[in-house]
Amino acid sequence: MEPLNDTWILGHRIPEGTTIFMLLRHLATRDEHFMNGDRFDPERWLVKPEDRRGPHDHRAFVPFGAGPRFCPGRNLAMLEIRAVLAMLCGNFDVLPVDRAGVREQLAFTMFPTGLFVRMRRRQRP
User: What is the value of pTM for the model shown?
Assistant: First the structure.
C-alpha cells in the first residue's frame, strides 16, 4: 500500500507514493487483545468463549491480512493445512514434547522454533 498524501506516523514522514508494508502480527501479541498475548499458546483457540478468562479479540489475529488486499493464497493454504492435518491425525498419534523451549521466530511470516512433537503410528484393527 502507499499513502495518497505525505503522512506522518509516530514522528516519521512517509512521502506520498512510498510503498509501505504493514505487519499486523503486533496486534495479536498485545495483552489487551489476548491473555498472555506474547506467549506461544495454540490452545487459546480451543477454549469455548464462555470459559475464557481474559481478553480474546479474534479480530486482532489476521494471518492472511484483511480487506481488498488479503492474501490471495488464503483458501489454498487453509485447504492444504486441513488435508495435511487430516492425514497426520488419521495415521499418527501426535504427542507433545517439552514445551519449555518453544519460541517464535520473527520473519516475513512468524514461525515457531523449538516446537517438537513425537509421532506414533496408529495401530489399525
Answer: 0.58
Report pLDDT digits (tens) over 53-76: 889 888 888 888 878 878 899 999
With 0-12 CB in 10 A as exposed, 13-18 as middle and 19+ as buried, what is 8? exposed
Distances (CA, A) of 46 to 21, 41, 51: 31, 10, 10
Q: Is the dihedral of CA 20, 25, 26, 32 positive or negative?
A: positive
- State the cell numbers at 10: 509516530
Provide the 3-class DSSP secondary structure of residue 36: coil
8-state DSSP, 56 = B
**Is residue 34 within 8 Å of 57, Cβ to Cβ?**
yes
**Rounded distance between C-alpha atoms, residue 37 and residue 2, angstroms:** 29
CB-based contact 94:119 (threshold 8 Å)? yes
Secondary structure of residue 51 in the 3-state scheme: helix
- CA nearest to 92, candidates 115, 119, 116: 119
Contact 61, 28 (CB under 8 A): yes
